[in-house]
């Protein structure tokens, strides 16, 4: 049993009800909650003085905090965690929210998975009024063909055709002295080695084959192979892609100065793909929605934000990506959880159907 669950069990009915009302009011308004406000909300008639005593006890337990001497109380991070774990009532997905998310699939060609995920991210951000994160799966189809195309003396294009029809290309700087002949030789060598393999599997094979057949392949062609294929190591062609939408929503929800700087730092890190694998790690404990509040996860601790995240799976029930919403700690968790859960299931079905 966690510490917060233990504390919740020790609270009497009155303390639990006062705590619940403080948190719900704070999540709704973002403002500290005073004892006089609670006297109008409690079912039983209790004096403001009695409520103040209860709130002081909750503050002593670390569940509430008073931002100012004369102000009301707000929940602490520990208090929010206890509320989410033990008192949160998750609502049903509304028909309106469902239609807005579903519309992303009907308004475009669903074969373009990347484009659909972009639109799903935008819809998720619009529905929740937060910032959305969609971790798209890495592309791991088998390779059918690779080709080098010279564009200029210092610029070339490597084109990768995958067995599922997906085509990727990268610009790169070829080694000095390359000729059309060396480019053809490099492409021919790669096609004999990597056909039928995924990009990840091909890397180790290429290194082994270059070493074993060093005498057979021209030195220029060998350099072309190494530099042309290495461009995927430098880019993100085979890595998961993080789609971030609704940045302005989170910036608008927070105050000024240091808070805005922390939010900007968070998004800068995400957009540079820092800790991108960690975002997927958040979901590794299995299926279902998880909630991270403030400093509970280092990726979001600097911004003081909360994250509601759910993994999605492919047809083999393997976790391949995740969907999430970032917002202030006073998110409407009861509404956000079913939205994230439904969106993750929708994305999983999209990926499974396509495969």
Automatic annotation (TrEMBL):
Family indicated by similarity: Belongs to the HrcA family.
Annotated TM spans: none
Keywords recorded for this protein, A-Z: Repressor, Stress response, Transcription, Transcription regulation
KW Repressor (keyword) present: yes
Pfam families, A to Z: HrcA
Function, as annotated: Negative regulator of class I heat shock genes (grpE-dnaK-dnaJ and groELS operons). Prevents heat-shock induction of these operons.
Record flagged with keyword Heme: no
Gene3D superfamilies (alphabetical): 3.30.450.40, Heat-inducible transcription repressor hrca homolog, domain 3, Winged helix-like DNA-binding domain superfamily/Winged helix DNA-binding domain
GO biological process per UniProt: negative regulation of DNA-templated transcription
GO molecular function per UniProt: DNA binding
InterPro entries: GAF-like_dom_sf, HrcA, HrcA_C, WH-like_DNA-bd_sf, WH_DNA-bd_sf, WHTH_transcript_rep_HrcA_IDD
UniProt-recorded name of the protein: Heat-inducible transcription repressor HrcA
Domain Heat-inducible transcription repressor HrcA C-terminal: 116-337
SUPFAM superfamilies recorded: GAF domain-like, Winged helix' DNA-binding domain
